[in-house]
Amino acid sequence: MISLKKIVLLLFVVGFGFAAKAQKTYKNWSDIIRKNNTAWFGTEEAKKIAENVLLYQRDIGGWPKNIQMQDELTTVQKKDLLEIKKTTKETTTDNGATTQEMLFMSKMYAQVKDERYKESFLKGLNYLLEAQYGNGGWPQFYPLKKGYYTHITYNDDSMVNIMNVIKAIADQTDYYSIKPSKGIVEKCKKAFDKGIDCILKTQYKQNGILTAWCAQHDEVTLLPAKARAYELPSLSGKESAKIVLLLMSIKNPSPEITTAVKSASEWFEKTKITNLEEKRILDENGKIIDKKMIAVQNAAPIWARFMELDTNESFFCDRDGIKKKSLDEIGSERRNGYAWYTDEPKEVLKKYNSWAVKNGVKVSETETASDKKKINFLTVAQDGSGDYTKIQDAVYASLSFPYEKVTIHIKNGTYNEKVRIPEWNTNLILLGESKEQTIITFDDNFSKINLGRNSTFYTSTLLVEADDFSASNLTIKNASGDNGQAIALSVVASRAKITNCNILGNQDTLYLSGNNARQYFKDCYIEGTTDFIFGGSTALFENCIIHSIKNSYITAASTPEGIEFGFVFKNCKLTAEPSATAVYLGRPWRIYAKTVFINCELGKHIKPEGWENWSKPDAEKNSFYAEYNNKGEGFQPEKRVVWSHQLTKTEADKYSIENILNDTVINWYSK
């Protein structure tokens, strides 16, 4: 038998092992720095890590890169770090070094007023100011390290990271808890202005036209420069994005800055790649063992990391420094160990429109009125009289993240195609010639798709992923018949407005979802069988006809917990086929479902009890099903299930379009 003493010892060892694992929740140093729990930075665990950060900081103020500061140090390691503190060995801003440690010290000082944290932060700030070149740029290592490290370094956003720190100090924001003296603030203002001047001077001109930036620029000539063997002089799709976002963050930008932003944004639009997707092959541990670029249609936009200075053509290099035209030509080590493509410029294009309006940036003078109309107004006609014969082709041709609304006018005809409006085709309008004769139809259903339990979501005839979408004067139909789940219209956009449309199907006709989505349906005819209006978004239906084909359920909301409004029907008319005589208003797809009918006319097909719990007793406590001032044979409030509600006038008044859709959405809808 094992003695009691041994059992206690064994439990201690096992328990200690679990505790040690629990303490190391974060694998990477950068994850710890960006913890949102501010109180954690006052814990003993955080203080222990802070001691390591202080040890790694050189007396000059900078830190080395790629150090997991949270890893426990041995006595020997601590001694070694103390011995090299007075040296400048490997102090850098590469890979986020120094700027991220400064952020950590700021978060520590906000919780623990240890003056060493403040001194460490200020030493780091002084290091950044001392490292700046007279022309405004920053090298990768300071003091200077021989080789390409002396170049002005935009690579991996090194210079942008520095300038974001200095800008926060110069603007005297509350981002950092440590407030330097007025003299240091003034130094930061001058350093930031010099940095911006350097950025403007290094923006590359291609045949006299401003484009973007290289990852490195020569510190003397300011021209694009080479770094490692596979990092040749080129225009960078990645590094240029953060530079432009920095320029866009400046209040009251100069004409030179607005020109730089506008030119770079146009270059991003010109150089985006929408016919390739990266496929990563992982091993059992989740490590990338191969990358392939797959040709697809209408892929999410990406940009090459390296583009030719004169032609914008993508290129790739192995460690031999020889240019190749495709990633497949690069050896496995570099192909899989480097980021050759990026989607970061997408953020620039998303934000450019509002930035341009705010700063009075006009459409290029070289763009004529007819050119602008051609870009923003496309016509689809089956007889060949328009720009395209297929709706999807017109979507493919539409601008990504356009500055103004893009209208696709669809002439009468039956368009037998699946249509997808991708996330990057924002501000798009589908405008039919007539609701009855402009028909988009397809016949996918759950069984036909046959992709497992989530097949329903692949069945839609029209899929809308892009925000600020509008459709009117259309019939959108899933023609598969009564053969299970088959979506006609799927809207997963944050904002969508559908007016004067027929939405036709059977089970699961209309799916509504999206992140904090607000969707608006007006003057529409929607028909189906089971759960034919379903999903988790906030959606307002006004003056719509809701038609049931057979005995079943109209709605199946999955409203997330804590959301104020789910599906709201106002001034709608509920009708049915003669054979449909027992239809529920709704049932909860998820237990926090919310559905309300206000001032609606309910046909006699509506069951007296109104609502059903879908065998979910918890839904009776957590869902919210309600009515107000309805009429018709189907309105029998005294017979409704006891866990539903009849609103008072005061309660019903809260269901205004302004409250349901909120001001931001209302302003967009009114445009």
TrEMBL record:
Query: Gene3D superfamilies from the entry?
Result: 1.50.10.20, Single-stranded right-handed beta-helix, Pectin lyase-like
Query: Which GO cellular component term is one of those annotated?
Result: cell outer membrane
Domain Pectinesterase catalytic residue range list:
379-662
Q: Which species is this UniProt entry from?
A: Flavobacterium defluvii
Keyword Hydrolase, does the record have it?
yes
* Single GO MF descriptor: pectinesterase activity
List keywords of the entry alphabetically: Aspartyl esterase, Hydrolase
One Pfam entry name:
Pectinesterase
Q: Which SUPFAM superfamilies match?
A: Family 10 polysaccharide lyase, Pectin lyase-like
Concerning InterPro entries, the annotation shows:
Pectate_lyase, Pectin_lyas_fold, Pectin_lyase_fold/virulence, Pectinesterase_Asp_AS, Pectinesterase_cat, Pectinesterase_Tyr_AS
Q: Which GO terms describe its biological process?
A: cell wall modification; pectin catabolic process
EC numbers for this chain: 3.1.1.11
Listed under catalytic activity are:
[(1->4)-alpha-D-galacturonosyl methyl ester](n) + n H2O = [(1->4)-alpha-D-galacturonosyl](n) + n methanol + n H(+)
Provide the transmembrane region boundaries: none
Class in the EC hierarchy, top level: hydrolase
Enumerate the active-site residues: 531
Origin: domain of life: Bacteria
Which pathway?
A: Glycan metabolism; pectin degradation; 2-dehydro-3-deoxy-D-gluconate from pectin: step 1/5
Task: Recall the taxonomic lineage recorded for the source organism.
Answer: Bacteria, Pseudomonadati, Bacteroidota, Flavobacteriia, Flavobacteriales
UniProt lists the family membership as follows: Belongs to the pectinesterase family.
Protein's recorded name:
Pectinesterase
